[in-house]
Amino acid sequence: MDYVDHLDRTDSPGIRRAIEEVPAPALAATNSLMASFARPWSRRWLLRGAVAGATGAALTSAGALGALAVHAEALEGGDTLKTFFSIIATGEELFVTLYRLGVANAERLGFNFAQKDALAAIAVEEQIHRDFAVANGGTPVTNNFSFPHGAETFTNREFFLATQQLAEELTNGALLAFIKDTASMGLPRIAQIGGQLMQVEGGHRVVGRVILGANPWDNWAFGPVALEHFTDVPAAVTAAGFLSPREGNNFPFVPVSLEFPGVINRHP
C-alpha cells in the first residue's frame, strides 16, 4: 500500500484540513518545488482536486497532490513541525552563507575551478533546502551568523574546510534526529524528506574531504547519532559557534541564484 492509498483509507483530519485550509500561495510555492514528484496517484485523489476551491485547477497534477500530502502532514505536525522547519530554514541560511562566502573568496582560499564549482553547487542545494522549509511553514529565527574562526574562515583554507566539516557533521546528526522524531510523530512522508536531505548533506561532507585530500574520502559506514531530538539542534549549533554574531564576526544571509543547471533532482 503506497502512502497516498493509506491516506485515502484513513481519511485523516489532517488531509481534510489540508484540502480546506492550505492557502493558494503556499500550495503553489510547494507545488513549484515538487512539480517533478512522480508516483501512481489513486483515482480518488485525482478527483479530490475539485474540492480545493480556487486551487482546484492546480491540483490536477501529481506535483500539486504531492504538495498537498506534505502540507497535510505539516498540519498534522502542528506547531512542533513548524518549529522543525524553522530550525531547518535557519540552518540552511547559515550554510548558504558559508558556501556563498567560500565561493566569493575561492582564489584567496586556494580553491581551483572544479573545487569552486562544487562549492557553488552546494550553495544552490542549500538554498533549495531553505526555500522548501520556508514554503512549508518555517521561519528563520535569525539571518545573521557567526563562525568559529570568525572572518579568518574566509581567508584561511584550513579554517574554512574545518568549518565546512563541522557544519556538515552537525547537519547529518541533526537530520538523523529529525527523521527519528518525525517518524515517531506518525509523519512518514516528512521523515522520508529528512532522509532525502541527509543523503545530500552526507555528499557535502564527502566533497569537503575530497578537497581536504583526506584518505579515504568517504569514511563513515554509519552516520553517528549525535542528538537525541531535533529540538536539541539550536543549542548544538550555538555551542559550535555559529549563532553568536558580534562585531567582526557577523555575516548576513544573502540568497544565491538557483541558476545552476548542473544541480538536478530539485524536488523531494
Q: What features would you describe in this structure?
A:
- The protein is mostly helical.
- It has a domain at 78-252: Up-down Bundle (Ferritin).
- The protein has helices at 3-10, 13-21, 24-33, 43-48, 62-104, 106-109, 113-135, 157-184, 188-212, 233-239, and strands at 144-145, 251-252.
- It has a two-stranded antiparallel ribbon.
- The chain is globular and about 50 Å long.
- The model is unreliable at 1-11 and 32-60 (pLDDT under 50).
Relative strand content: under 5%
Q: Output mean pLDDT.
A: 83
Output the number of helix runs: 10
Class based on secondary structure composition and strand pairing: mainly alpha
Overall CATH class of the domain at 78-252: Mainly Alpha
Helix content: 55-70%
- Biggest sheet, open or closed, and with what strands and sense? 2 strands, antiparallel
Uncertain regions: pLDDT < 50 for 5+ in a row?
A: 1-11, 32-60
Shape: globular
Order of helices and strands: HHHHHHHEHHHE
Compute the separation of the termini in Å: 20 Å
Radius of gyration: 19 Å
The CATH topology name of the domain at 78-252 reads Ferritin
Strand order of the largest sheet: 1-2
